[in-house]
Specification:
This protein is an all-alpha fold and about 140 residues long. It has one domain. The protein contains eight helices and no strands. This is Antitoxin Xre-like helix-turn-helix domain-containing protein. It comes from Bosea vestrisii. InterPro entries: Antitox_Xre, Xre-like_HTH, Xre/MbcA/ParS-like_toxin-bd. Pfam families: Xre-like-HTH, Xre_MbcA_ParS_C.
Length: about 140
Amino acid sequence: MVSYEAMARVLGLPGDARAGRTPFELISTIEKGLPVAALERVSHLLSPNDAQFKFRFVPKATYERRKAAHRLSADEGTRLARVVGVWELALDVWKTEEAARDFLFRSHAMLDDRRPIDVVLQNEIGGELVRDVLAGLKYGSAA
């Protein structure tokens, strides 16, 4: 299981803030609007060589408005948090950032030959499918 404190750390939320100590505090922080810097941080972490990756979360024109407001919408923050949760699980399974990235950005047979990152970004059901694949890898079932 992914810790909410780990998710808050990946999102770059202040360590002294209550933002991620419990699931409800993280939910509240997402609802109020994650800082745009969290999107920048996660985009760079997952796809360090692709400056356009952040636009998978927020369209470019919307991104410019979010930068001016300094906050993501609740839906954008939820999508970002979903990806962070899967990232943390991938790290737990694969142990290195490079191996976790390789898993997320390579097509997978159990996902209809789609890339896990694309499936996770699509919706919560996609996130569950990818988490199921990772759980299978972690606990030794077919994956």
